[in-house]
Specification:
The complex is a heterotrimer of chains A (309), B (97) and C (399).
Chain A lengths: L31 H13 L3 E5 L5 H4 L11 E4 L5 H14 L5 E7 H7 L1 H9 L5 E6 L39 H6 L5 E6 L3 H14 L5 E6 L13 H10 L6 E4 L2 E4 L10 H4 L10 H24 L3
Parallel strand pairs in A: 1-2, 1-3, 3-4, 4-6, 5-6
Antiparallel strand pairs in A: 5-7, 7-8
Chain B lengths: L14 E3 L15 E5 L9 H5 L5 E3 L4 E3 L9 H5 L5 E5 L7
Antiparallel strand pairs in B: 2-5, 3-4
Chain C lengths: L7 E6 H11 L4 E4 L6 H12 L6 E4 L3 H14 L3 E5 L1 H6 L1 H9 L5 E6 L13 H5 L6 E4 L3 H15 L8 E6 L7 E6 L2 H12 L13 E3 L6 H32 L7 E4 L6 E5 L3 H14 L4 E6 L1 E3 L3 H8 L4 E6 L10 H7 L2 H4 L4 E5 L9 H15 L7 E3 L5
Parallel strand pairs in C: 2-3, 2-4, 4-5, 5-7, 6-7, 11-12, 11-14, 14-15, 15-16
Antiparallel strand pairs in C: 1-8, 6-13, 10-12
Helix pairs in contact in C: 1-2, 1-7, 3-5, 7-8, 7-9, 10-14
Classes of the chains: A alpha/beta (309), B alpha+beta (97), C alpha/beta (399).
Chain lengths: 309, 97, 399
């Protein structure tokens, strides 16, 4: 019996579609990308088309021979062509009056590195597509190499900890800020600990994509590459928000506002201690990382102030 | 040339079609620990189901039951349950495990 | 018997012709990025769209790779599409070219031939086409402005035929044709509609439809990969007779024939043959005529279809000849012969014992002149008489 104290979470109210994926798919245990991929169609509905690319998503988004892992229409792409293929699809569906939500679904490597040019181009042209970048801060599918989304100091297989160099020497490209400067119709950051926030943003994204470009930057830690216990991945997402390492905000027509303001943010060390990719950082390394976090937060906060109504 | 191969794709181009085949892995076999629910503690909030990456917590009306065919044993449900109603138990302790 | 009405004759550049060719075929999505010597096509089509003369989505992309990806996406959704490029732009599309043909998307593209990078050159040459010959596209080379227009129309009939479903690249010599204004008959759009109408009677091809559980670009696993490649190669084989068939249908309807895969000029009784392609074939014809007057039995084979390589038609045309000279407007790294010559030599056994002489000429906007071709004829005449000859000649290097 369901009594008054047994009230289901409001997030369920955002679901308009059943599960679209097979029960067992090839994503690692505890992977928040799997949660993202299963979550998105439930909120966006069946008329969404995935445009995907090699990366952690491809083994599941794209089929194998006649078989596929999900019931959604999809188009596979190499990493350099994702938003452009989506443009072609979206333009034709729009021209012929077919209802469709065309969703690019790529990792941070595609979005910030090799596939950045067409992403920037599609955003500038204000194409009616949604681009979701799941950010696991590196090339996790190929074995944890650094991308330009890899944070300062992080150890990856191409920025390993050695005797004279220890981790990545430069901070991550501030991709949400880069996309904000494109002034997309709608954009937001989101993560898996804050699912109602994510669901609201997806709902807005679907409507906004009828008018123009949408960019969603989803923080999706990799339990394998970052060396996190698989049960603590959601906790890592939550801590990233609570330390302002990954602030939650959105922007309509280029005007940013926080969707969640952390009252008293914790030091970034609370976040880094949950994983081992930062475990080699000394006091100075941690200070540098904290400074990056503070500077980025100050920047977005300043912009939010500018646009405050 | 004598072609013995029977076509996989009905079309010229390689397209997949889940009417023909929905791929699925036996991810339940990956698991080393299994979530066990204490129904007394469960208040049916649904957070375990929402956070479950393979979305294999089945809604039973006033509680959730894990689908062991797909559960990879990540333990997120147990960690995230606000009532600590789920515990992860090593597979070795189950007769079917 | 010509069924089509007489079209308007206008003196326009090859690039403008390319744009008119596209306009007449009513593409629904066009994407293009400017590059010399093609940019005029991108501009002209944009003008057509903005004037309301062409009802198409026009995407001004940020690079050629995106141009190909946009038209690929639209084609997979079901659209008729068009794009145009050249040189560096074509090679920047390399991965997308392969996806387009692998997905069997009937994209039609114009490529204004130009040299490719390494040696930076803003000049004509077929190196771009040669560099992309293994991308699974149909590649056709045309000679003049009228042929650009007519071949674009024919290319839609070819690409969208359910027995073909392959992308088609229409190549013409950049600079030579792109900026050359010639008198061109522009058919009435109703007649082009009628010529392309058979495509509409086909079963609709596979399309990516929102809400339908199908996917484009599935991984080819083992025999899935083998099967897809086999079908692609089989389709390439079917292109060859189809090009001849469409050329005949086009000629019957519009009154202009191009010979299909190859065009033969005074080859029947010829002892020696020049195999050439593109705009230089006009010059070769002139020399064939003048040498014939001097009693040398020379003929021209104009290569129109480069991919698939028209093996059967070439064997038929060249069998029993006494010497063959191939003029290449590109180089073949790793073979001393030019690329078309190298490919022709794969047919040596079927053609017979004739010496095959390779000539590299016309690189980097250097003209393939009448004296150059006269020299080729004279050397072939010598070789045909069993005398010693030079196997490979870079003509400009000996001047």
């Amino acid at each position: 019996m369901v009594d008054a104290t047994k009230k289901r979470n409001r997030v369920f109210d955002y679901f308009i579609e059943e599960e679209q994926f097979a029960g067992g798919v090839a994503w690692c245990a505890g992977c928040p990308l799997e949660l993202t991929a299963r979550f998105v169609p439930k909120v966006l509905g069946k008329k969404m088309i995935f445009v995907g690319t090699p990366g952690c998503a491809a083994p599941v988004l794209h089929g194998q021979n006649i078989g596929a892992w999900h019931h959604l229409a999809y188009m596979a792409s190499v990493m350099t062509g994702v938003p452009s293929k989506a443009t072609g699809l979206s333009r034709y569906y729009h021209k012929t009056g077919q209802e469709a939500t065309v969703v690019c679904f790529t990792g941070d490597g595609c979005a910030t590195d090799v596939g950045f040019q067409p992403l920037s181009g599609a955003a500038e042209r204000n194409e009616r597509i949604i681009y979701i970048a799941y950010d696991n801060e590196g090339y996790m599918n190929t074995g944890n190499q650094r991308s330009s989304a890899t944070p300062l100091g992080a150890a990856t297989t191409t920025t390993p900890v050695g005797k004279i160099k220890r981790g990545k020497p430069t901070p991550a490209k501030n991709m949400p800020m880069v996309m904000l400067m494109h002034k997309p119709r709608y954009m937001a950051t989101a993560t898996l600990s804050h699912l109602e926030d994510f669901a609201k943003k997806l709902t807005k994204a679907k409507e906004a994509a009828k008018e123009g470009f949408v960019y969603l930057h989803v923080f999706a830690p990799c339990p394998v590459g970052w060396r996190i216990d698989s049960n603590r991945v959601i906790e890592v997402c939550r801590t990233a928000v609570r330390t302002n390492y990954f602030p939650l905000w959105e922007a309509e027509n280029g005007k940013p506002r926080f969707t969640l303001e952390v009252a008293s943010p914790k030091p970034v060390g609370e976040f880094t201690k949950l994983m081992r990719k930062f475990s080699h950082l000394d006091e100075n390394g941690m200070k540098d990382l904290q400074r990056t976090v503070d500077e980025r937060f100050a920047l977005i906060k300043g912009l939010c102030e500018v646009y405050k109504e | 040339m004598v072609i013995k191969h029977k076509n996989i794709f009905p079309t010229e181009s390689p397209w997949s079609n889940t009417d023909k085949l929905l791929l699925c892995l036996d991810t339940g076999s990956w698991r080393t620990e299994r979530p066990v629910l204490d129904r007394e503690k469960c208040n049916y909030c649904g957070l375990c189901a929402l956070y479950c990456p393979p979305q294999c917590m089945r809604d039973k009306g006033d509680y959730y039951e894990v689908d062991l065919a797909y559960c990879k044993g990540c333990g997120i449900c147990a960690t995230e349950c606000p009532r600590k109603a789920i515990s992860m138990v090593p597979e070795g302790e189950f007769a079917d495990g | 018997m010509v069924s089509a009405q007489k079209g308007q004759v206008r003196v326009i550049t090859g690039n403008a012709v390319g744009a008119y060719g596209a306009l007449l075929c009513r593409p629904e999505v066009v994407a293009a990025y400017p590059i010399t010597p093609q940019s005029e096509i991108a501009e002209q089509i944009a003008q057509f769209v903005n004037n309301g003369e062409l009802d198409a989505e026009y995407v001004e992309v940020e690079g050629e790779n995106s141009a190909m990806n946009v038209v690929l996406g639209a084609s997979v959704a079901g659209a008729r599409v068009f794009t145009a490029t050249s040189s560096y732009g074509l090679v920047f599309m390399y991965d997308a070219l392969q996806e387009t043909s692998g997905y069997r998307a009937p994209v039609v593209m114009v490529n204004a031939n130009r040299e490719t990078p390494g040696i930076h050159a803003v000049s004509s040459g077929q190196q771009d086409m040669v560099s992309t010959r293994d991308t699974g596209w149909v590649q056709i080379i045309v000679e003049n402005d009228q042929e650009i227009l007519d071949q674009i129309i024919m290319s839609y009939r070819l690409a969208e035929d359910n027995n073909i479903l392959l992308p088609v690249m229409v190549n013409y010599d950049g600079f030579y044709l792109s900026y050359l204004a010639e008198a061109v008959e522009i058919p009435l759009i109703e007649d082009v509609d009628a010529f392309l109408a058979p495509l509409k009677k086909q079963t609709p091809r596979q399309k990516l439809v929102p809400g339908v559980n199908i996917g484009c670009g599935t991984h080819g696993i083992e025999m899935g990969y083998v099967e897809a490649r086999y079908k692609h190669c089989q389709a390439m084989e079917r292109v060859k007779p189809k090009v001849d068939e469409i050329d005949k249908a086009f000629g019957d309807y519009f009154g202009r024939y191009y010979g299909g895969q190859i065009e033969e000029y005074r080859t029947d009784d010829a002892d020696i043959i020049i195999l050439a392609s593109g705009s230089a074939t006009g010059t070769v014809r002139t020399v064939v005529d003048s040498k014939r007057e001097k009693g040398i039995k020379v003929g021209l084979v104009k290569l129109r279809l480069f991919r698939p390589f028209p093996a059967e038609r070439l064997i038929e045309a060249l069998q029993g000849k006494k010497a063959i000279g191939v003029i290449d407007r590109s180089v073949g790294f790793g073979w001393k012969y030019g690329p078309i010559c190298t490919e022709l030599r794969a047919l040596s056994r079927e053609i017979g014992t004739a010496p095959i002489l390779s000539y590299i000429d016309g690189l980097a906007n250097l003209d393939i002149t009448i004296p150059h071709i006269e020299r080729v004829v004279d050397e072939l005449d010598t070789a045909a008489k069993g005398k010693p000859y030079q196997e490979v000649t870079w003509i400009p290097m000996e001047e």
